[in-house]
Amino acid sequence: MILTVTLNAALDITYQVAALTPHASHRVGEVRERPGGKGLNVARVLTALGHEAVVTGFAGGPVGAVLRDLLAPLPVQDALVPIAGNTRRTLAVVDTSTGNTTQLNEPGPAVTADEWTAFLDMYTALLGRAGAVALCGSLPPGIHVGAYAELVRRARTAGVPVLLDTSGEPLRRGIAARPDLVKPNADELAQLTGSREPRRAAHDARRRGAHTVVASLGPDGLLAATPDTVWQAIPPATVKGNPTGAGDSAVAGLLSGLVEQLPWPERLSRAVALSAATVLAPAAGEFDATAYENLLPQIAVTERAAAA
Amino acid sequence: MILTVTLNAALDITYQVAALTPHASHRVGEVRERPGGKGLNVARVLTALGHEAVVTGFAGGPVGAVLRDLLAPLPVQDALVPIAGNTRRTLAVVDTSTGNTTQLNEPGPAVTADEWTAFLDMYTALLGRAGAVALCGSLPPGIHVGAYAELVRRARTAGVPVLLDTSGEPLRRGIAARPDLVKPNADELAQLTGSREPRRAAHDARRRGAHTVVASLGPDGLLAATPDTVWQAIPPATVKGNPTGAGDSAVAGLLSGLVEQLPWPERLSRAVALSAATVLAPAAGEFDATAYENLLPQIAVTERAAAA
User: Fold this and answer.
1) Which domains does chain A carry?
2) What radius of gyration do chain B's Cα atoms show?
3) Out of A215, A222, B31, B106, which could bridge B88 as a Cys pair, Cβ 3.0 to 4.6 Å?
4) What CA–CA distance (Å, rounded) separates A293 from B277?
5) CB distance B15–A106 less than 8 Å?
């Protein structure tokens, strides 16, 4: 089983409006709700790839109850820890005229010290049967900034490969605890290292503690700096669509490839094809299975050079 | 007891953001939730004025459950009829830099024929002990456009004075059923009558069936066309603030004055003072009790002329 951690899970709400105009009043057309948060997205893609996936993190309040109700019919296993606070909502307001999206993200509930302890017990128990673990997304209020570092250390103690996908100070602290894999995007990598040159920045992130760094470069695919070499995986053409969840699909591709012990070129092909197939899917966070199968043999993976 | 009907009740959510920018991503600061819908606002103000108030209409789904939980500690009595659909949310996005608000209103749940019948039974039973009834706001999907006309007729049959506060076709149909009072704003009155001259439009609305028409004219206060004469009630100065709920406070002022059998000038002074005190209150839909007491003796009520 593959475990994903989402400390700041969300109910993703989508509003369709003709066009969003600041300071005006709008009638919302369609309203959609889905379980959200990066680790939940990763787990959904993992189950679509045939893996058993368990999600943990926090859920609470009326919004948390809706999230769990929407999660129940999915093949993902719910091991979210109950909290007193209300799970956050993220709102995507889509202009039906242009398809452009305005995003409004609630901060999330404050998590108490006792709730964090209950989560650590759940996490440690789940590690006992996990083949890999992904730590995904932002930290809710009340969780200390070194939380991911602690979760990385516990995974390493349990001998479970750990992927960290976060940003800012939680990434900086987490990377120092020596995760097996980090998957920053270009902005997150630049924020961490001060460099916008992906190869240099990826090497820097490795020196900070990550065993392997896979940088997601949008239309330029993925750049992987492993202990042995550097790989670049590029999609056949720029795909147009909704990029929401594309990074989470890449994480699912990398994790599944790790558990299946695939060679790096195959892991990266899978991650890039899943990511592109997610951009192509009409619903945010889903992937187009046919597009994925078609794209998979078309990903160009090249070895760029020995690692510095 | 005074009864208020809100067929399309809402959970009012307020997001604070630095400034809303279309197609950008925003971190929401504070998130607030309150029970909303015009009839619920009217009932809250009525209880603050010392009246017993009962709210009916529809509530359902997880959002309806939150709305009822938030209503429970208030002095308003909850007689909402349960439905299978999910109560709508209204979202106010407030720019903290300017105080300007962007409004996003969900359409509301579809109400079934059986749910409408259950509501009619509840409404008719409540009319038996009501001193007055207010019918407030928009109709949810599935409710026929003549619904307010039916509710006006039932109130008249029960001998209960009825105030109608809605717009568009539901107002046009409802007014033909001869309500005691309608309270359109300038836009609603113009849409109904085709005239933007308030006195002419108010007389026209009376000819369409309303016993008395009280038009709310924003900073110009209220214009009341009764069977006997025309009154205008004007606040001492333009008040600045959030106008959300000002019209609902005016309805509460008119209804309480009707039940207390106050002369028209006192009813109108109360309605205008409550309305202005609502604009001045920091929270949307609340009123500033001290401002209300100060404003009340300052409202200028003049008889404009005999009705045409």
Assistant:
1) 2-8+35-85+110-306 (3.40.1190.20)
2) 19
3) B106
4) 63
5) yes
ipTM value, please give it. Answer: 0.87
Concatenated DSSP letters of B258-275: HHTT--HHHHHHHHHHHH
**Rounded Cα gap, residues A220 and A237, in angstroms:** 9
* Residues of B (142-181) whose Cβ lies below 8 Å from A: none
Q: What is the pLDDT of residues A211-260, one digit of tens each?
A: 999 999 988 999 999 999 999 999 998 788 778 889 999 999 999 999 99
**What count of CB pairs under 8 Å joins A to B?**
75
Per DSSP, the three-state class of A282 is coil
Tell me the nearest-neighbour CA distance from A34 into chain B, angstroms.
Answer: 14
User: What is the tens place of the pLDDT at every residue in A186-218?
Assistant: 999 999 999 999 999 999 999 999 999 999 998
Distance from CA of B72 to the nearest CA of A (A): 16
Q: Taking CB atoms and an 8 Å limit, are A28 and B105 in contact across chains?
A: yes
Residues from chain A that touch B243, judged by Cβ atoms under 8 A, are: none
Name the pTM for this structure.
Answer: 0.89
Active-site option among B180, B204, B248, B288? B248
CA distance B181 to B277: 23
